[in-house]
Design brief:
It is a single chain. The chain has 156 residues and is mainly beta. The chain has one domain. Helix content is 8%, strand content 43%. Strands 1, 2, 3, 4, 5, 6, 7, 8, 9, 10, 11, 12 and 13 form a 13-stranded parallel beta sheet that branches.
Length: 156
């Protein structure tokens, strides 16, 4: 007769980001890349990257990841630090341990309760064109009748 015991996993251990099955690439903790990264597969960055990242699939910035780059991908998940603009064709997500200092352009944006974000967000469904400044002003004038900040004083 055999006796089996279960190994207890410490409760304070929170699993870090992982790559999905299939083709994927890893930038390890001790690796520093300056320049451009291009991949059609998913990529996990645990090291330091400076430059530009263009990925057709998903980019995950791991807890140890330190990125100073423009990022363009289908999905971007930030667990570490990012300084630069991020463009996600489907979604950009900042988890509680993540920080982003830069602008986000994506149709879906998720910022966790403790996630740090400093920048601007532009959310627009795929294929929708940005409105020009003239269209925005025309829309504001049509709605309110007056341009914002300019009102006619009334004297009695």
């Amino acid at each position: 007769m055999s006796v089996f015991t279960q190994k207890k996993v410490p409760e304070s251990t929170v699993p870090g980001p992982t790559l999905s099955d299939g083709q994927s690439s890893l930038v390890g903790k001790t690796l520093m890349i300056k320049g451009e990264i291009y991949s059609e597969d998913e990529i996990l960055i645990e090291g330091k990257v400076q430059g530009r990242i263009t990925v057709k699939n998903r980019v995950v910035i791991g807890r140890n990841g330190d990125v100073e780059a423009e990022i363009e991908a289908r999905d971007v998940v930030i667990h570490g630090k990012v300084k630069g603009n991020v463009r996600g064709s489907q979604k950009v997500e900042i988890v509680p341990s993540g920080s982003l200092h830069g602008d986000i352009h994506a149709p879906r944006v998720v910022i966790a309760d403790s996630g740090i974000f400093e920048g601007n967000i532009e959310m627009r469904p795929k294929g929708e064109k940005p409105r020009s400044a003239d269209e925005k002003t025309a829309g504001a004038n049509a709605q309110g009748g007056e341009a914002a900040g300019h009102t006619k004083p009334t004297h009695k």
